[in-house]
Fold:
Amino acid sequence: MPSSKNNLTNKHVLICRTDAVGDMVLAMPVCGLIKEYFPSCKISVLGRTYTRDIAQASRHIDGFVNFDDWQGKSVEEINTLLATEKIDVAIHLKDLSTVAWQLKRAGIKKRIGTTNRLYHWFTCNTLVPLSRKNSGLHEAQLNVKLLRGLNIKRDLSWNEVSDYYGLSRFQPLNPTFEALLSPDKFNLIIHPKSHKNSKEWSLDNYSKLVHRIDQNRFKVFISGSQKEHEELLPWVQQHEGLITDISGKLPLSQFITFISQADGLIACSTGPVHIAAAAGIFTLGLYTDIKTKDAGRWGPVGKKAESLTAVNADMETITVDDILNKINAWQKP
Structure:
């Protein structure tokens, strides 16, 4: 149990994670674990505009501080914004020197960083020994290590991580989108792109997969962002009648709910694969074997989540049969 000097009862904790949607999902267990020890504390996250909806979907997160609101403002103006939040503790899950310096200048009393970032020695007053690059742990498990700065020395096993997402605040699904979900078939979402942020399985392979999926058992949805919708459109048109295209049609808040009400999802290392795992539906991640980018570090973690791993960084070594063997074993709840 944390010592009295680390008592967060009625305190305000800021979790800093200013990158992507999937990263925000993997920060949720930190929030859930803090809440387990200090249910009355307030937890906010510092994130980007596009991660607000996923942050607000976790019951462990009470507030959102928008990093994008800092853009174009002076240090003093940002300090004024932060002063209204009355933050007691800041934990740097994302390494960003500008954030670290700003929170120091704002006078936040306790600032937790890692010994492996030189600027944290100057901007933080509590340092945790942590090397992400050389660790064999998952990103969610590494995030939890930062809680040692609060004397919370609890580690989460792979199987325990999913107990701490708290992904349960789903917005009501628009009836138009709800009507797309089949009450009888297994609703399978395929999210083929990643904005080139990770190794992707080719569209040619997805085409072969779609043609071999049992249409009597599965209803297949293709998802993606608005930008990806434009990229996918010719491919989607080639598969009319086999798939339902929802790419670019749902705002993130609705897409989160849609995923939670579907039955399964296939994707590479990108945000939706983590949303699906956290929502508790069947999830299959397609991953490279490159260290620091593999499933061991970035794979989906959930009660119904699993991954397939390429050989020698060649995503083509994941076969259609590999995927069919996985999804054909999935059963609609």
Notes: The CA atoms of residues 229 and 261 lie 22 Å apart. The first strand starts at residue 12 and ends at 16. The chain has a mean pLDDT of 96. DSSP finds 14 helices and twelve strands in the chain.
